[in-house]
Amino acid sequence: MFVLSNLIIAVATILNYALTILTWLIIIRALLSWVNPDPFNPIVQFLYKVTEPLLAPFRRLIPVYSIGIDFSPIFALLLIWFLKLFLVRTLFGIAVRIG
Fold it and tell me: What's residue 4's pLDDT?
């Protein structure tokens, strides 16, 4: 059973790293929105392509034009925080109980 335990730990660790990287990408994108970056810059395009699938559903719930402020990064960061607290910790707990 230690093999399954190690597999779950590896999946939880990779998921934790991926969520951390996604957190930083969302923060960088939010900061870039304050300075009006060049939309043709490859780094800016990469940031938009990676973060837009997570931010778009929150923008549909709270449209930017009605308030004037885009709260979607805050809600996305809260979702990531929840996933890290619940999902990653649950996977680590399962791995400890199996192993």
Answer: 94
